[in-house]
Write a structure and sequence with these properties.
The chain has about 280 residues and is α+β, with helices and mostly antiparallel strands. The protein has five helices and 14 strands. The chain has a seven-stranded mixed sheet with strand order 4-3-2-1-5-13-14, with helices on one face.
């Protein structure tokens, strides 16, 4: 009985910490109708993606995640992937958009690094230069093989996070570690409860994305309880928390020569600092 009580108190503390920090970081609006409207929410560039014209000779892949629209942004994020091959001067973007059902997989639905209905994105992964052409080919194959291309369910999935998790599993070289608040990343059908984790380098057991555990060098150990994830990342020390996603060292990954590729574009909107680590 004491053990059960201790576990309950610990879980409540973890969930409370994640929710409190997420609420503290939530953007404050003036309460006007315009501020609440998805139709008028800003979608301009966040100024994170480098100018593709300046990178004409460089292959590049980036993955972003931004809080979902409205009150859901306190709980979860919406991710997407962009890429360009060497010789191209424009990015291709892919994400899953639920209201476009039954064709939920969308190509170039929005600006490559645009705000997601007013929410600023964070850069999760970046790869440039050598080996990226082959990675892009593998990413496109993963997009084509996504098994839920005509279905969408915001909770517990399949959704936009399920889509990026599928790409991560199929392309381990991407080294994609989706945050703990990427609800839907652990969605697995009842016919396939065991398999590779979304990083492509760990193992996972999950029942419909509602109960499960993931274990690997990139994600550390992460538990899933009713779609709310929590755990510990030892690769880049941090707590993996529901609602918030991550508390600790930044886990953004970047490969390739930043100097050769050139600087990012200046942001037309408010400046946003994005930590990157050369890996």
């Amino acid at each position: 009985m004491k053990l059960g009580k201790s576990i309950t108190i610990t879980l409540l503390a973890v969930f409370g910490l994640g929710l409190g920090l997420s609420l503290a970081q939530a953007p404050v609006t003036n309460g006007s109708a315009e501020a609440r409207s998805w139709q008028t929410a800003p979608k301009h560039s966040a100024g994170i993606a480098p100018d593709p014209a300046q990178l004409a000779g460089v292959a590049l892949v980036q993955v972003y995640a931004a809080p979902t629209y409205g009150w859901r942004g306190v709980f979860a994020v919406h991710p997407w992937i962009i890429y360009k091959r060497a010789g191209e001067t424009a990015y291709t973007r892919y994400d899953v958009v639920g209201w476009r059902a039954p064709d939920v997989v969308q190509r170039n639905y929005a600006i490559p690094d645009g705000l997601w209905f007013g929410a600023s994105p964070s850069l999760l992964v970046e790869h440039r230069g050598e080996g990226v052409e082959a990675m892009i080919a593998a990413i496109e194959a993963a997009i084509d093989s996504y098994p839920h291309a005509s279905e969408y369910r915001s909770y517990p999935g399949p959704n936009s996070n399920t889509f990026l998790a599928h790409i991560g599993r199929e392309v381990p070289a991407l080294k994609l570690d989706l945050p703990a608040n990427a609800i839907g990343k652990d969605y697995r059908p009842l016919t396939s409860p065991l398999g590779i984790s979304p990083t492509g380098a760990g193992i996972q057991a999950s029942l419909l994305g509602l109960f499960g555990i993931s274990l690997g060098l990139q994600e550390g150990v992460e538990f899933n309880l009713l779609g709310l994830n929590f755990g510990l990342d030892l690769n880049r020390p941090a707590l993996r928390l529901p609602f918030l996603g991550r508390l600790g060292w930044d886990d953004a990954r970047a490969t390739g020569s930043m100097a050769e590729a050139g600087p990012p574009r200046p942001s037309p909107g408010p400046a946003m600092a994005v930590a990157q680590e050369e890996r």
